[in-house]
Amino acid sequence: MQQFVAVVVACVLLCGSCSVMVTAWYLHLKYSDRWPLYRAVFVSWLIAGGEYCLQVPANRLAFRDGGLNGAQLRAIAEVFTLVAFLLFSVFVLREPLRLNHVLGFLIVALGVWVVVLGPFNTILVDKRDHHHAFELEEQVELTKNHAEHDHTTR
C-alpha cells in the first residue's frame, strides 16, 4: 500500500510539474507580438525554475518508494505533458483541437503503456555490475507483481 501511495503522490506532483512546464514552454506564444525574445526567455526560465520543485521530488519518490524506473517515470510524465499541452493549446492559446492531434497523442499514449506495463522485460544493454543487475531484476519482479496485483484488484 505504501508503494501505491508513493506512486499516486508522485503522479500528482508530475501532473503539476508537467502543467507548469507546458506553461513555461508555450505561454510566450500568446504574447509573441508584445514580448521581445529576451523577456519571453526570462519569464519562461522563471516559470521553469519553480517546476523543478515538483519534478525532482516526484521522480525521487516514485523511484525510491514507488518502485518505478527512469523510463517509466519519463513515459508517465509524457502523458501528463501531452494532456497539459492539449488543454493549454485550446484554453490559453485558443487553438482548435483537431482529430489528428488527439490520434497522434493516443499513439504516444500506447507507447507509454508499452514502457510502463508492457510485456517485454528483455534487457538489451546493461552497464551495471552483476550485483546491481541482480537487485534490478528483483525490482522489476516487484514492479511486475505490483502491476499484476493492481489489475486483479480492480
Task: Note down, in words, how this protein is organized.
This protein is an all-alpha fold. 79% of the residues lie in helices and 0% in strands. It contains five helices and no strands. It has helices spanning 2-30, 37-64, 70-91, 99-117, 130-153.
Sequence stretches where pLDDT stays below 50 over 5 or more residues = none
> Count of DSSP E strands?
0
Distance between the termini: 14 Å
How many helices does DSSP assign?
5
Computed over alpha carbons, the radius of gyration is 18 Å
- Major sheet: none
Task: Give the helix proportion (percent range).
Answer: over 70%
Please state roughly what percent of the residues sit in beta strands, choosing from under 5%, 5-15%, 15-25%, 25-35%, 35-45% or over 45%.
Answer: under 5%
Return the domain count: 2
Label the overall shape.
elongated
